[in-house]
Amino acid sequence: MDEILKILQDNALESRETIARLLDLPAAEVNRRIADYEQRGVIRGYQAILNEDKLETDKVTAVIEVKVTPQREGGFDTIADRISRFPEVRSAYLMSATYDLLLFVEGRTLREVAGFVSERLAPLEGVLSTSTHFMLKTYKRFGVLMREKSSDERLTITP
Amino acid sequence: MNGSPSLHNRLNLAVRDIPRSGIRDFFDIVTTMKDVISLGIGEPDFDTPWHVRESTVFALERGATHYTSNLGYLELRCALAGYVEKVFGGVYDPESQILVTVGVSEALDLALRALLNPGDEVLYHEPCYVSYRATILFSHGIPVAVETRPENGFRLTRAMLEAKVSPRTKVLMLNFPNNPTGAVMSRADLEDIAAFAQKHDLIVITDEIYGELTYDAPHRSIVSLAGLRERTIFLHGFSKAWAMTGFRLGYACGPSELIEAMMKIHQYTMLCASSLGQKAAIEALARPATDIGEMVAEYRRRRNFIAGALDDIGIECHRPLGAFYAFPSIARFGLPAKDFALKLLHEERVAVVPGTAFGACGEGFVRCAYATSLDNIKEAMARLKRFVGKL
Question: Which chain A positions have a beta carbon within 8 Å of B245's beta carbon?
């Protein structure tokens, strides 16, 4: 993977100038490559990683395992696309083994998520069954530990 | 016994006459200050890989809390033999040619004590790690420093060595990639040094603790050269590449006769390296490429950044090719290195280590470690720029 992407994945706010310096590249080359990634959809967007447990907002996240019937034309993609378009669905993956799709669904209340599952998701043609798990606490997201602020235990000067 | 003056006179002369490390004095000043950004830390800012820490906890639970073989767990020595052959090109018998030690520092001490008689001379290159000169003196050897210079990338040349060798020279010490300069040696450089060692029949002690940390070309070890392994003690450990400084785990590889002699001192003084440290090392060797690869990539990016930033500020710096240190020249500012470092510390709260801590020829230089976060490096460079603008 291009190191530019690695740097942006760790910190999307890193300036183009710094990235150029870190990689010993001309700034114009860094700009060109990032523009190319954005244009080709390799970079789909930039987001902040929030520790939602620290926010006072009411939010419920459910992880839903879904069994579906693949369609003759389009396989899993047609039904997966249809499900992914609901704004309540924050992430959706095709999985191996005992179920087919794994969804991360957000709502303001448990009732709202339950309503989404029973009224929107489960009745969809091609959805065979759902199994809903509610998330209780976040320990790590996108490679970032949520509970621990790392501290530098090192002495200030060492040989 | 009445008071310290008479006690002072009772000290061993070698110990009495050696000053404390210059780094120590500087450390005492820095610790009294707040909000200091330190480029003075000679150890990785990464955490020890979690699988290593986790398996150390498991080893503790399982009760790996006893003495080990003096040489170290055989399982560890076997893993080390495989690693050293693959990465450094040296072939060693785990039964008799590898000794696990309390850091490379102990291994170096053992090697010198096993080899030196009073009056034997040891060639080593400066600027160098703070303990080399002292360790030679503690072993009753005579340290003979060879000065390396930025003009040739702080590399060691045969001509420099030929100028200092004598009939009493017994040992040649090498440390590449180098702390504090970041210098590395090419294969051709090493071949010259190897020919020199053979011509003068010297024992070579090579401290390659930074061996994994090179940024523009793979590291070459002198033990990979034909005929050198028979006269070389190879030193390495887990502190730098695996960020395991506090585990204190190093090792020496060499001809059986030398390892046996070192083992005798180790046996009577240290007995064995920490059992838990050794268990951690076994786990560390399970997947070195994954652990080390990303750290090296990150150090390389920071190296590029700090070299570019120093250049922008107008501070001359030979390009560091290994380890995690930049060693810029501050001579043009007209201050001795120690004064420069103190002034920088007091005025801008940035800690760098005066080059003189690494030998007299480090005058005119400071060591900036880039084993710290990019944010810290950015801020330190901004402060340094402001500082030199006022000089």
Answer: 158
